[in-house]
TrEMBL record:
<feature type="transmembrane region" description="Helical">
    <location>
        <begin position="323"/>
        <end position="344"/>
    </location>
</feature>
<feature type="transmembrane region" description="Helical">
    <location>
        <begin position="139"/>
        <end position="160"/>
    </location>
</feature>
<keyword id="KW-0812">Transmembrane</keyword>
<dbReference type="GO" id="GO:0046323">
    <property type="term" value="P:D-glucose import"/>
</dbReference>
<feature type="transmembrane region" description="Helical">
    <location>
        <begin position="418"/>
        <end position="437"/>
    </location>
</feature>
<dbReference type="GO" id="GO:0070837">
    <property type="term" value="P:dehydroascorbic acid transport"/>
</dbReference>
<comment type="similarity">
    <text>Belongs to the major facilitator superfamily. Sugar transporter (TC 2.A.1.1) family.</text>
</comment>
<keyword id="KW-1133">Transmembrane helix</keyword>
<dbReference type="InterPro" id="IPR005829">
    <property type="entry name" value="Sugar_transporter_CS"/>
</dbReference>
<keyword id="KW-0813">Transport</keyword>
<feature type="transmembrane region" description="Helical">
    <location>
        <begin position="379"/>
        <end position="397"/>
    </location>
</feature>
<keyword id="KW-0472">Membrane</keyword>
<feature type="transmembrane region" description="Helical">
    <location>
        <begin position="172"/>
        <end position="196"/>
    </location>
</feature>
<dbReference type="InterPro" id="IPR005828">
    <property type="entry name" value="MFS_sugar_transport-like"/>
</dbReference>
<dbReference type="GO" id="GO:0005886">
    <property type="term" value="C:plasma membrane"/>
</dbReference>
<dbReference type="Pfam" id="PF00083">
    <property type="entry name" value="Sugar_tr"/>
</dbReference>
<feature type="transmembrane region" description="Helical">
    <location>
        <begin position="202"/>
        <end position="223"/>
    </location>
</feature>
Length: 505
C-alpha cells in the first residue's frame, strides 16, 4: 500500500501534512475518551473525597497502587465521578449541532484552528485542578473538552473527505478512526500507575488531553483550504485551483474543477439546508436514514461496553492482570483499523461494514456462552477473551471507521454540514446512553447482556445489506444520483421547490 501511495502524484507531501494535521484533532478525541477510564480512577475518586471533606481511610494511605480494596463510597463522590465521565458526552452532543456553522463560517482549516482554544483551556483546567477544587476543575475541563471533541469529530472527517482524491477517499477517511484508537491506546499506556496514573501525576495525565491542539495550531496555517469550500461555497475558482495544485501536485485540474462546477450547479438548485429542513425533507430522507443508522450501528453494537468496562469484563473472565488485557484490546483496535485503511478502497465500504457487523454478532454470542459456562468449564474464559479480541477486530474493520466519513460521501455540498451535525449528535447521544445504562443492563441481564447487542447487530446487518449502496470509487455526484433513483422524480422536484422557498435554509 505504501508503495502505491508514494507512487501516485495525487498523494503529495502537502496532502499528507493536511491529513496528519487534521487527524491530530481525532487523536485528541481518542485520548480524551480513554483517559478518564484509565487505572487511576480510584486515585481521582480519593482526591474528590478529600476535596469534599468525606475522605476515606484509604485516601490517607494512597500511594501508586490502584489495587486497593473496594470500600463503600460517599454518594457525593460517586455523583461527581459519574459527572466527570458523562459530561464529556453531553458537551459533544451540544456542540455537534454547531459543526456546519463553524465549518462554513471561516472555512474548514480556520474552523479547526478556531476551536483549538477550547482544547487548550480544557487541558489547563484539568492539569491545574489541584490548585482549586479538583472535582469542579475536572468536570469543567471535561465539559469543555467534550464540546471541542463534538466539533472536531465533524470538522475532521469533513475536511479530509473534501481534500482526499476519489481513489483514496476511503483510506484517508479511515485515518480519523485510526487516530481515535491510537489516542485511546496512548491514554491507556500513559495512564499506567508507574507512568502518569499515580497520586502525584494524574492531573498532568488529564491535562495532556489538550497537548495535540498546540501542535495542530502550529501546523494548520501550512494546510490548504478545502477546494470544494473555496469553489462551491465562496465561488473562488482561482483559489480553489491553487489549493488543488498544492494538494495534488503538478497536474491537470480541469476534471476536478468540472466536477466541482457541476456540484455547484446542483447546490444552486438545492440551497443550503438547515438541520430543521433536513429532518423534515423527503428529498434527503434516504440518505439521512442511512447516515443515522450507520452511526447507531457503531454505538449500539456494544463496542463502548467493551471500551468502558473491559477491565471488569476481563476480571469476570478470570484474568489476573485485567489492565494489561485492556491495553491488549487497544493494540488490537489499532492494528485492525490499519487493516481497514488498506482494505476500504479495495473491498468497499458496504462489504467491510457487513463483514464487521456480522462478525461482531457471532462474537457477541460466543462471549455470552463463554461467560455463562466459565465457572463450570475453566477453558471457557479463554473463549470469552478471544471473543472480545475478535469483537474489537471486526468493529475496526468496518463499523468503527466507515460511519465517520460516509456521511460526507452520500450528501452533496448543500445539506452536507447539516447532515454531519445530525449524524454527530446521533453518535454522541447513543454513546452517552450506552455509557449511562450499560451497568444497569448488565446487572439486570448478567452474562446474557451481549445477546441484546447480538440482536441489534443482526438488525443493523440486515439494514446495511438491503438499504446501503456501495460508494467506493464514485464521485459525490454519482453517489447522489444513486439515492435520487430511489425516489419518485415528481415528489423530488416538489420538495426541492419547497426547500428553495424555505426561510430557514
Amino acid at each position: 500500500l505504501s508503495e502505491s501511495l508514494l507512487g501516485n502524484l495525487e498523494l503529495t507531501g502537502t496532502l499528507a501534512l493536511a491529513v496528519f494535521t487534521a487527524a491530530l484533532g481525532s487523536l485528541q478525541f481518542g485520548y480524551s475518551l480513554g483517559v478518564i477510564n484509565a487505572p487511576q480512577k480510584v486515585i481521582i475518586e480519593n482526591h474528590y473525597a478529600r476535596a469534599l471533606g468525606v475522605s476515606l481511610e484509604r485516601s490517607r494511605m494512597l500511594g501508586n497502587s490502584t489495587d486497593l480494596p473496594e470500600e463503600p463510597k460517599d454518594p457525593s463522590v460517586v455523583m461527581y465521578w459519574s459527572l466527570s465521565v458523562a459530561v464529556f458526552s453531553i458537551g459533544g452532543m451540544i456542540s455537534s449541532f454547531l459543526v456546519g456553522f463553524i465549518a462554513d463560517l471561516r472555512g474548514r482549516v480556520k474552523g479547526m484552528l478556531m476551536v483549538n482554544f477550547l482544547a487548550i483551556i480544557a487541558g489547563l483546567l484539568m492539569g491545574l485542578c489541584k490548585m482549586w477544587m479538583p472535582h469542579i476543575m475536572v468536570i469543567m475541563g471535561r465539559a469543555v473538552m467534550g464540546f471541542y471533541c463534538g466539533l472536531t469529530s465533524g470538522l475532521v472527517p469533513m475536511y479530509i473527505g473534501e481534500i482526499a482524491p476519489k481513489a483514496y477517499r476511503g483510506a484517508l477517511g479511515t485515518l480519523h478512526q485510526l487516530a481515535i484508537v491510537i489516542g485511546i491506546l496512548l491514554s491507556q499506556v500513559i495512564g499506567l500507575d508507574f507512568v502518569l496514573g499515580n497520586d502525584e501525576m494524574w492531573p498532568l495525565l488529564l491535562g495532556l488531553s489538550g497537548a495535540p491542539a498546540i501542535l495542530q495550531s502550529l501546523l494548520l496555517p501550512l494546510c490548504p483550504e478545502s477546494p470544494r469550500y473555496l469553489y462551491i461555497l465562496l465561488g473562488k475558482e482561482q483559489e480553489a485551483k491553487k489549493s488543488l495544485l498544492r494538494l495534488k501536485g503538478p497536474c491537470d485540474t480541469t476534471s476536478d474543477l468540472e466536477e466541482m462546477k457541476r456540484e455547484k450547479e446542483e447546490a444552486a438548485k438545492e440551497p443550503k439546508v438547515s438541520i430543521r429542513s433536513l429532518i423534515f425533507s423527503s428529498v434527503y430522507r434516504q440518505q439521512l436514514i442511512v447516515a443515522l443508522m450507520m452511526h447507531l450501528s457503531q454505538q449500539l453494537s456494544g463496542i463502548n461496553a467493551i471500551f468502558y468496562y473491559s477491565t471488569s469484563i476481563f476480571e469476570q473472565a478470570g484474568v489476573s492482570q485485567p489492565i494489561y488485557a485492556t491495553i491488549g484490546v487497544g493494540v488490537i483496535n489499532t492494528i485492525f483499523t490499519m487493516v481497514s485503511v488498506m482494505l476500504v478502497d479495495r473491498a468497499g465500504r458496504r462489504t467491510l461494514t457487513l463483514v464487521g457487523l456480522g462478525g461482531m454478532c457471532v462474537c457477541a454470542i460466543a462471549m455470552t456462552v463463554g461467560l455463562k459456562y466459565q465457572l463450570d468449564l475453566p477453558w471457557m474464559s479463554y473463549v470469552s477473551m478471544v471473543a472480545i479480541f475478535l469483537f474489537v477486530s471486526f468493529f475496526e474493520i468496518g463499523p468503527g471507521p466507515i460511519p465517520w466519513f460516509i456521511v460526507a460521501e452520500i450528501f452533496s455540498q448543500g445539506p452536507r454540514p447539516a447532515a454531519i451535525a445530525l449524524a454527530g449528535c446521533c453518535n454522541w447521544t447513543s454513546n452517552f446512553i450506552i455509557a449511562l445504562t450499560f451497568p444497569y443492563i448488565q446487572a439486570l441481564m448478567g452474562c446474557y447482556v451481549f445477546i441484546l447487542f447480538a440482536a441489534l447487530l443482526l438488525c443493523f446487518t440486515l439494514f446495511i445489506y438491503f438499504r446501503v449502496p456501495e460508494t467506493k470509487g464514485k464521485t459525490f455526484e454519482e453517489i447522489a444520483a444513486i439515492f435520487q433513483k430511489k425516489r419518485p422524480m415528481a415528489k423530488h422536484s416538489t420538495e426541492l421547490d419547497q426547500l428553495k422557498t424555505s426561510t430557514d435554509a
